[in-house]
Specification:
This protein has one helix spanning 2-19, and strands at 28-30, 34-41, 46-54, 62-67, 72-75, 86-93, 99-109, 115-125. The chain is mainly beta. The chain has a single domain, classed as Immunoglobulin-like (Sandwich), CATH 2.60.40.10. The strands form 2 sheets. A 4-stranded antiparallel β-sheet has the order 1-3-6-5, with no helix packed on it. β7 (99-109) and β8 form a beta hairpin. The longest helix is centred in the first third of the chain and has 18 residues, at 2-19. The N and C termini lie far apart (115 Å).
């Protein structure tokens, strides 16, 4: 009975250790995780650089950065980010549609926090309508055919 119990305790310890998070693993420390562009004009793309540092003891390798829609384009470092070094993830929003927006950007990496979320938000102000002057508008008064 003692051997079975001892074997069970050892097996449980091994399983627990394999699921424990490595305290020395690299991890992100962002300057900010949400950026508010405020009000921006329609049709004017805007960019923001999210600055972060690696607070762990091993390099961080970012495998993917995915935006929640096609209107947002992220760019990220492809090389490992060494411990205590800083880098940026640049996010561009194309501002094609008028109205409020709130978009997420998902970072996938080997960091202690393997999936990290960033957010951008703001309001796109509609472009002014093309104001055609009365002189340029087609006349609708003389629509009867001449004989």
């Amino acid at each position: 009975m003692k051997k079975v119990l001892f074997t069970l305790v050892i097996a449980l310890s091994v399983v627990t250790a394999s699921f424990a998070q490595d305290a020395s693993a690299g991890d992100f420390k962002f300057k900010e995780e949400t950026w508010d562009f405020g009000t921006i004009p329609q049709g004017t793309p805007v960019k923001h650089q999210f600055t972060f540092s690696n607070t762990g003891k091993t390099p961080i390798v970012i495998s993917n950065v995915q935006a929640s829609c096609g209107c947002t384009t992220p760019t990220w470092p492809k090389e490992p980010i060494l411990p205590s070094k800083s880098e940026t993830i640049e996010v561009q929003y194309n501002a094609a549609n008028a109205g409020g927006f709130n978009k997420s950007i998902t970072i996938t990496s080997n960091a202690a926090t393997a999936t990290k979320m960033l957010y951008i938000k703001g309001t796109v102000e509609a472009a002014p309508k093309d104001q055609t002057t009365p002189e340029k508008q087609p006349s609708m008064l003389n629509t009867t055919p001449k004989n």
